[in-house]
Write a structure and sequence with these properties.
Elements (H helix, E strand, L loop, with lengths): L7 H20 L18 H12 L1 E3 L22 E3 L6 E5 L6 E3 L5 E3 L6 E3 L13 E3 L22 E3 L7 E2 L12 E3 L7 E3 L13 E3 L4 E2 L1 H12 L6 E3 L22 E3 L21 E3 L6 E3 L12 E3 L5 E3 L2 H6 L8 E3 L13 H4 L9 E3 L6 E2 L13 E3 L4 E4 L13 E3 L4 E7 L11 E3 L4 E5 L12 E3 L21 E3 L22 E3 L6 E3 L11 E3 L4 E3 L11 E3 L6 E3 L4 H4 L5 E3 L4 E5 L12 E3 L4 E4 L13 E3 L4 E5 L12 E3 L4 E4 L13 E3 L4 E2 L6 H5 L5 E3 L6 E3 L12 E3 L4 E4 L27 E6 L2 E6 L7 E3 L4 E4 L13 E3 L4 E2 L15 E3 L6 E2 L13 E3 L4 E5 L20 E3 L14 H10 L13 H7 L3 E4 L5 E7 L8 E6 L1
Parallel strand pairs: 3-7, 7-8, 8-10, 9-11, 10-12, 11-13, 12-14, 14-15, 15-16, 16-18, 17-19, 18-20, 20-21, 21-23, 22-24, 23-25, 24-26, 25-27, 26-28, 27-29, 29-30, 30-31, 31-33, 32-34, 33-35, 35-37, 36-38, 37-39, 38-40, 39-41, 40-42, 41-43, 42-44, 43-45, 44-46, 45-47, 47-49, 48-50, 49-53, 50-54, ...
Antiparallel strand pairs: 1-6, 2-3, 4-5, 51-52, 62-63, 63-64
Amino acid sequence: MFFCDPHPTMRRVTLSFMLFTLYIQLSSNTVLISSDTNYHGITCFDVEREALLRFKAGLLDHGNQLRLSSWNILEPNCCLWEGVECDNTTGHVIKLDLRNSHPFIIDGLGITHMRNNSAGLGGKINPSLLSLKYLVHLDLSGNNFNATPIPKFIGSFKELAYLNLSNAHFGGNIPPSLGNLTKLQVLDLSSDDSLLKMHDAKWLFQLHALEHLDMSNVIFEKDASDQWVHALNSLPSIAKITLENCNLNPLPPTLHHVNFTSLSLFDLYENFINSTIPSWLFKITSLQHLGLSWNSFHGHVPNSIGNMTSLRFLDLSENNDLHMSRDILLELKNLCKLQILNLGYMNIEHRFSELGVIFSGCMKDNLQELMLYGNTLTGHLPCWIGNLTSLIYLDLSKNSLYGPLPQSLWQLSALQQLSLGWNAFNGTVTETDLHDFTRLEILGISFNALVLNVSINWVPSFQLKELDMSGRPVGPAFPAWLLTQKTLVYLFMSQAGISDTLPNWFWDITSTISYLDLSDNGMKGKLPTSLEFGVVAYLDLSSNFFECPVPNSFLNVISLDLSNNSLAGTLPSKINETSPMLEAIDLSNNKINGTISSTWCELENLIKLILSDNSLSGIIPNCLENNSNMAILNFSINHLSGHVPASIFLPPALEVLSLSGNNLSGHIPIFTKKCQSLYYLDLGHNMLTGSIPVSLSESLINLQVLLLRSNNFAGNIPPQLSLLTFLHFLDLSDNHLSGVIPKSFGEFASMISNTKHELSMGGYYREVFVTTKGLTLEYEALDSLMSLIDLSENDLYGCIPLEIGNLNLLHGFNLSGNHLTGEITDKIGSMNQLESLDLSRNQLSGVIPTTLTKLSFLEVLNLSNNHLSGEIPTGGQFNTFVDLSIYINNDNLCGFPLSKKCHDNHVPKEQSLKDEIDSDDSDTICLGHFSAEEVLENCLFFIFRSHTGAVYVTFVVKFAKIKGWYMVTEDE
């Protein structure tokens, strides 16, 4: 089953599972082994029986499935044991098939996953198996060997033709001894956990008989990534290569000789290969299946693609920088056998009608699946679309198509999926139009202006599994025809303009629904007291007008979002007893009061819990370490009090923690190494005290966002914070922090260069609001392209460190409301991404550095309430700063936009002295508390520090006959 956008990942997972299942069915017949279990009086050899019993003794049956119960001395003929097969002539064991027949589970969304670690066989593989000298077939797939290495001795089975260790949770490096299996025809080491690695691929050169290879999710290290193409190109019989998500390097641009004469399947899905597609790939004319989706291929598709006339499956999708010119697209017309074509997200910028020549030839009779989603196709949907009479799946979503739908579309009576969402189609779709779509299972018409004009008594000729009508006019009445749909699994009607009361019969049709989204409508009514209906896994009823208390049970629910409704009352205390599958809860922005019950701590499967923007009170239970799967926890904007419990940082999967906007007090607990997954921490707007613990920088090694504003923290800022490699949002404002700004703050790695760091819980976004000069700027805290430091409203003193200028990726910098002295370092002019700079309400002196005019992105500037002097620089963004208040209370400033004019050709004495000192090799940061006038009038010496921390004493002497100033500098 395929899924329409916005679920391309689901489509791929399900497709992979279908291909995997088909692959197992086909490959299991590759090696000819008799399935006859009547051995005509032949019994197995004693040495082989004993070897199998010793092998059994080392295994663990995680699922208590008693799969090896037949392996016992009561049945001496091991040829009759489950999973064992003998040669019906010699009696030797030739096949050992212990695959977990049910390694997969299907969640409420219909997505296929491996079972958890409690399933299947495990333990240790005893080398006694080496006594099975005639073993041809070994299958341990779908079990759980808990990341133990693949035994090296498997490479000693000289007769082995079939080896399947897929999804068996082996780990470590693949032993090169597998290269000794010179008779191997099928090798499957694929997995879903990426525990296996391949250091080099030289051993693949030795597998001369290999036909099928699947190493999906095996991590290819550098040498292996460079060698695998050449190794597989040397194998004369290789027919199927599947290397999905293997961290592969760019494909070699040339091959001296292309030997892939038997290759029929080549799949490199999701490797993010950053290169052009080499032309030699399209010289493999035997290919029937070519999958290159989810990579970073760029440039043009080679025009030799038209020579691949054996192709039945072509997937080049999700390569945004890969271009197909009109001429290359026309080459596709020669692919007469093509059944599946996926060119989604490939920047195809053509009028859709221009593609008619491709689909009007021999392809039109065989093409079953056409996916062109996520491109820039324009124009009307042409009438020739009705000629593709074999189409089963059609996905044209997320393009720029417009106008009414042609009548020819309704002639495609074989369609099972029709996805037209996220375009600009308009007009009316009637009951008559849809009458012949008797096989339709997936209908996506979201975010268009299409009107579905049907009668209240309409009974469709189809039974849908997925319906997406979000972002288009459906209401105000709730569509009554949904009552006829008995097989719905996905129902999306967000932003559909429905203001009706949700009918009582609606909950009766949810017995099959796994994903239900009715958010952002104006629906009214009461929710049932129990949501124990059906198999709903993901339920989003947010932003409506539903009333009543929170339902007291959520059977089968994985993710629940009831935010922005009119719910009231307290949280149910027995939620854990009736919702064993609950993984995510969002009850934010309601009127829920009461306390956080300790029963929440018992929801071991909970992944996301959001209770923000309510009226919850009491303390946070000190038991959350039991939630081993918790990734997102948000209790912000409530009335919680007491201390922050240490246990809240103990869930090993915790990635996002927000407790802001409460009445929490006391110190921050000491952080431990167990919270290394945390990347977002917000404790702002509380009453926390004490110092910022150094353990924060030692334990939260993946932290990206740290928000501690508006508390009562005191003491110095730990310079060790700069060790947080991925930190790009730091807000310590509105506290009682003192001391100097650490020089190490110029070493934040992610504010100097882009530090890519993937997040497993992508999609969680929370805004950060920065106030400067009366303006409130909104930043996306988890946007890795944005960086911010806010140290405002504290008791910091000393100079602005010169090293701050290293932060060339910083977007917002706020030091206002402190006691900083000295001059504004001209190194700030190197922070070329700066958008907001607030240095107001300090005791800064000297001139405004002219280097600040280089900040071409600077939108907000505030230098008010300091002791600045001299002429305001002109040019660049400074010409746009006409608000006088940003310079107010700097009595010695002059120039535009102030009314105070500067003297012509006059450089203030203080600036002259500064220019000379800046030219000195000692690399002055600031001049201490001595003014230039004091130095001139009294020839005083003064002390300043270099950037290295050394102290110098400088004597300033004026020579009447020589222009300029000279400094004699000695070590103190």
